[in-house]
Specification:
Length: 192
C-alpha cells in the first residue's frame, strides 16, 4: 500500500531521458557551448513559461551562438537528439497508478504533448502539468499547488519526484514528501 494519495513526477530526468553523450559530442565537434546557451535561464525561461515556442527558443540559441550556418547545423542536430522512456520507472509509476493518481509536473515547452505522444505516453498519466501551459515553472510553489489540485489531493499527501534538488526542496516546503531522483532505486525505495 502506497502511503501517499498522489504521485507527482517530473518528466525529464525521471521518466524521459536524452542521450547526453550525443549532446557532448555535438558541442565538441562544433566547438559551441550548446548546453550552457540552451539552458541559460534567460534563454530557456520564456519557452518553459509558454511565452515563446520551442522553434523561437531554438532560433534564439542559434542567434546567441553566432547565427551562422555552423550554429544552425549544430542546433538542428541538437534538437534531433534521441530521447526515450525509462521503462522501469514507467512500470513503477504504472503500478502506483493502480492505487493513486500519477501526475506529470514538468518544466516544458509547447512541444511537450507531441513528445509524450511520440513516446506512447499520451494516456499514461492521470494529468500533465506543463509549465508552458500553466505559465509557472518549478520551483515556483504555484506549479506544485496546481498539480496537487489536479490530483484532488492536499499537498502534504503528495509524493513529489524530481531529478533537480531545488525542485524537490520547493515541494517539501509545501509539506510534500520529496524524492531527489538520481537512479531507479531512489524511487523504488519509496514506491517499491
Amino acid at each position: 500500500m502506497i502511503p501517499f494519495d498522489a504521485v507527482l513526477t517530473d518528466f525529464d530526468g525521471v521518466l524521459r531521458h536524452f542521450d547526453h553523450a550525443a549532446q557532448a559530442e555535438i558541442e565538441a565537434r562544433y566547438g559551441l557551448p550548446l548546453m550552457k546557451t540552451a539552458f541559460d535561464p534567460e534563454v530557456i525561461g520564456p519557452a518553459t513559461l509558454g511565452r515563446i515556442t520551442e522553434a523561437e527558443w531554438a532560433e534564439s540559441i542559434t542567434v546567441a551562438l553566432g547565427g551562422d550556418e555552423r550554429a544552425r547545423r549544430a542546433m538542428a542536430e541538437f534538437l534531433a537528439i534521441r530521447f526515450w522512456v525509462d521503462e522501469q520507472v514507467k512500470e513503477l509509476l504504472a503500478r502506483a497508478q493502480q492505487q493513486v493518481p500519477v501526475v506529470i509536473v514538468t518544466n516544458a515547452m509547447d512541444t511537450l504533448e507531441q513528445h509524450i505522444d511520440l513516446l506512447g505516453l499520451t494516456h499514461f498519466a492521470d494529468d500533465v502539468v506543463s509549465s508552458a501551459r500553466v505559465g509557472v515553472a518549478k520551483p515556483d510553489r504555484r506549479i506544485y499547488e496546481i498539480a496537487a489540485e489536479r490530483a484532488g489531493v492536499a499537498p502534504e499527501r503528495c509524493l513529489f519526484v524530481d531529478d533537480r534538488l531545488p525542485n524537490v526542496e520547493a515541494a517539501r516546503t509545501l509539506g510534500m514528501t520529496g524524492v531527489h531522483y538520481q537512479k531507479y532505486d531512489d524511487l523504488a525505495a519509496v514506491l517499491g
